Amino acid sequence: MFERSRKGEHALLIQPYSGGPPDEGASEEFTDLARSAGASIAALLTARIDRPNPATLIGSGKLEEVKAAADATGADLILVNFPLSPGQERNLEKHLQRRVLDRTGLILDIFAQRARSHEGKLQVELAQLRHMATRLVRGWTHLERQRGGSIGLRGPGETQLETDRRLLQKRVEQLQKRLEKVEVQRTQMRRARVRSELPRVALVGYTNAGKSTLFNALTGADAYAADQLFATLDPTVRRVDLSGGSVVLADTVGFVRDLPHELVAAFRSTLSEAREADLLLHVIDAADPVRNDRIGQVDEVLQEIGAGDIPQILVFNKIDRIEGAQPRRDQPSEGRERVWLSARDNLGLDLLQAVLAERLGMQRVRGALHLPSRAARLHARLHALGAIRAESHNDEGWQLDIDMALADAQRLAAQADGHLLEPLLPAQENEPWQ
């Protein structure tokens, strides 16, 4: 039996492909993923697979080639850019005498390194345990041991494998309960933001497109940003003041092609910031030669999590990497307006803020307003929004001098006593803001 090593940072990469030439973009991304996990790259081999071998994925000839390359380069880890079945992973390890990780296992390892919040760590551990649950039958020799044999412990007992499975299931149940509590708290916080009447905007995009850098530039926050895949995992939320009002801006985890389904399920909280947003800022690396493919891949993930119908603004970031490029704003293309900027150099942020204000209906309304005494609740809401510039009170109610965002006025106007605000609203825009 093969005793599975816990070590392994010098990696041999295998890029499977079928039909046509290998996808260089997929190979480059997988190499970046390996480096993001802390691996040094020994070599990268491509393997054409028209009919996957159910036992080892690749054929016997390619398997011998991989073994020879691993021996020659001293690689102690094999990374496969393909979702392996538990049996395939076990058989590859047995033949290659090295630890083997598939794409999902590699991304989970990166997530484990990057999660910082309590919730993020719980989500990563849960995803890892669920992934591990199907892979307990391996070459570890300790799994063959039986309990029993000593005084008081004789009998059939249970195998170490069964013990591991039972303990793993118990831990999964514990994590699920803890995450449910955290999710309740996050939902309460999200509801509080909804009650604040502030529009919600979420940053989405392919990993390493510069979302966190843009988030910091817009909010003045210090969210971690680095030139690496999955630099940030935990959702970060801040309030941003624009010329016509304020919005709640959320930074979310970056996407990659073929994002494993178990990762989508595990990170439902950070993805829910995108799913429940009023507007998405789809951040794109403008200098990426395959940026159009990246846009399509992000759109696919958004559809998968139920956010495909939310309005978007395409934000082409990193124009500082394109010679002669200048900040600009393009007319909507297929319903999505485009803004070209550099978050790192603070170029074009004013254009993005202007587009945000327009798309979120942040024109302002000003004027005098009379509220009767029975409208005390509306009066309090106006105070909470900072909409009252001056006021006086008599027996009939309040005389107010109002200055507020049109979006806030329209939302309040849709409520029970909010119709009192209608004299302030433009005649052609009396419908509540959506």
UniProtKB/TrEMBL annotation:
Major subcellular site: cytoplasm
Stored CDD domains: HflX
CC per GO annotation: cytoplasm
InterPro entries per record: G_HFLX_dom, GTP-bd, GTP-bd_M, GTPase_HflX, GTPase_HflX_N, GTPase_HflX_N_sf, P-loop_NTPase
Region Disordered, residue ranges: 1-27
Cofactors that this protein relies on: Mg(2+)
Binding site for GTP: 205-212, 230-234, 251-254, 317-320, 342-344
Domain Hflx-type G: 199-364
Subcellular location: Cytoplasm
Keywords: Coiled coil, Cytoplasm, GTP-binding, Magnesium, Metal-binding, Nucleotide-binding
One Gene Ontology term of the molecular function aspect: GTP binding
Binding site for Mg(2+): S212, T232
UniProt keyword tRNA-binding present: no
Coiled coil stretches, renumbered: 158-192
Pfam family, any one: MMR_HSR1
Described function: GTPase that associates with the 50S ribosomal subunit and may have a role during protein synthesis or ribosome biogenesis.
Assembly notes: Monomer. Associates with the 50S ribosomal subunit.
HAMAP family for the chain: GTPase_HflX
UniProt similarity note: Belongs to the TRAFAC class OBG-HflX-like GTPase superfamily. HflX GTPase family.
UniProt-recorded name of the protein: GTPase HflX
Organism: Pseudoxanthomonas dokdonensis
Gene: hflX
